[in-house]
Structure formats: structure tokens, C-alpha cells
Amino acid sequence: MKKTVKKIQKYKIENKKIAALTAYDFYTAKYIDSAGIDLILVGDSAANVVLGYNTTTQITIDEMLIFTSAVARGAKEALVVADMPFLSYNVSIEKAIENAGKFIVKGADAVKIEGGSDYIINLTKRLTEAGIPVLAHLGFTPQYINTIGGNFIQGKDFDAALKILEAAKKLEAAGAFAIVLELMPKEASKFISENLSMPTIGIGAGCGCDGQILVINDLIGKFDDFSPKFARKYFDAKSTIIDCAKKYIEDVISGDFPNDEESFKLTKEELSKLENYKQC
Ligand code: KIV
Questions:
Q1: Which of 42, 46, 56, 227 is deepest in the core (most CB within 10 A)?
Q2: Phi, psi angle pair for 188, to nearest 5°
Q3: Strand (E) positions, the chain?
């Protein structure tokens, strides 16, 4: 059965944790959906882990729309949330609603927007009123990397945690159905989670949140040198891909690939014609 925003919100009341992952393509979405994942975020982390850009600010709305439609086709039950990329929602409310609508047309069930400014709070209200559910995002907000100045842990003292809670409360009042809390001490995210009605979904925010999200590439070990402290690697896709490619290269060079079972064959009759062919 399709997981709706209402169902995700009910998890908090039922004291059930939300398990969320990112995905960017059809088959990954299909597989993690069949595994029972609750929410799939088509994250703008695609900028780094799929397209090889340095920051998430480099990915465009057109690129995100392609990933979103692929994921939406693969996910039958999970709630699909599209991450609105940098500047696709900050120019004006009208433009933001128009852009958010493009993700819904491509099959997303909701959109995620970063930040807690008055503008973002107002936009959350307007999107919700327009029928577009909003997943908020506070703590470390990667799209603001150039103003933040680096991947810094947020909410590191009481005042900072309270400030995040206050912004989160305004986003909740504006209609956000849930919120991502990124990079903060576990006690701060627990404090924020306990003082909100909407569910919190943590990444690098410890176990005090109502759910967790990870970037799929971190989960399956498909990354290069950098792996965040908070990620748990369940598989080594990088080594597996390299090992498979090495073995394949060996098999092609040695002539072991393709073998008879991997080849199409002519009928005996056609084969004998071919063998009896003499060039004039
Ligand atoms: O883009 C992303 O992957 C995110 C994280 C919260 C998972 O925003």
C-alpha cells in the first residue's frame, strides 16, 4: 500500500521509526521499495554521487527532474520526495510553486526545501496550500554551503539547538509534514524531536530522531575516498565494481568471454552454407 504523508506522520504517534534512503534511478528505487523503505528522497546529493559535481549547488532542475521521474516509476509504495535544487525555490514564491509543480508532474509525492528563513516558512505555507507537501530541512543545509563556510555541525549548544527548534516549529505551523535534521549532536536532535509534533528524520544527527535517512551510495559503499562518520556501509560496491571490471577485462582478453552459452548460433544448415562458401 502506498505510503502517504499522513501515514509517515502517524509513525510518530505510533512510536515507529521512519526508514528513508535516497535513490536516483529506477532499479534502485524499485529494489529499496520492495525492501520496504518508507520514504525515498531524490536527493540533490545526486550532484555529488551521480554526476560528480563538487557541491549540490551545481545540479540543475532539469537534471533533478530526470532522476525524479525514474525513481517515481520504480517506487510503488514508498513516499517519493524530490529535493528542490539550489535557486529553484529561492527567487520568488510564484517561481518556486511552478518549479515544485514540475516535480509533482514527474511523479513525486512531496518536495524538500532547505532552510528556516521567513521566506522559506512562507513558501512552505504556500506550497502546502497549493497541494504540495513539504519536507523541511534544518541543521546543516548543504545548499547554503557558501554562506555557512563548510560542513559544520549545527546546534552545538543550547541556544543554537533552541534556534533550530524555533524555526522548525514555524515550519511545522506553516504545514511541513516532516523535517530532515542534518549534522547535529544527538542530544540536540532528540530535544528538537521531542518538542515537535511532526516527525524528524536525521542524517548525522544521532538516534534521537523519529527516523533516519542515508545517501544510498554511502549505504552500499559506492563512493570514492570520503565517507561521512555518521554513515554505515553495508556493502562494498566500489570494490565489487572494480573486481568485476578487472575479471571481465581478463575474460575478454583471454577469449573466455563470450562462451558458447552466451552466444547466438546459426542452424546447422545455415552453418554448412557458410562453411562451404568459397570466395570467387
Ligand atoms: O540530498 C540529499 O541526499 C539530502 C540528505 C538529507 C539525504 O538532502
A1: 42
A2: -70, -45
A3: 18-22, 39-42, 79-83, 110-114, 134-139, 178-182, 200-203, 211-214
Residue ID of nearest Cα to ligand 1 atom 8? 43
Q: Is there an atom of ligand 1 within 6 Å of 45 CB?
A: yes
Q: Is 231 left (phi over 0), alpha (psi -120 to 50) or beta?
A: beta
3-state secondary structure of 240: helix
pLDDT in tens, 63-82: 999 999 999 999 999 999 99
Helix 158-174 / helix 186-194 crossing angle, nearest 10 deg: 40
Ligand 1 in reach of 179 Cβ (< 6 A): no
Q: Which three cell numbers stand for residue 73?
A: 516509476
CA distance 249 to 243: 10
Is the shortest distance between the CB of 172 and ligand 1 below 6 Å? no
- The three grid cell numbers given for residue 99, joined into one nine-digit string: 518549479
Which pLDDT score, from 0 to 100, does residue 278 have? 75
8 A C-beta contact, residue 185 and residue 206:
yes
Residue 182 is among the residues annotated as catalytic for this protein? yes
Atom of ligand 1 nearest to the CA of 213: 7
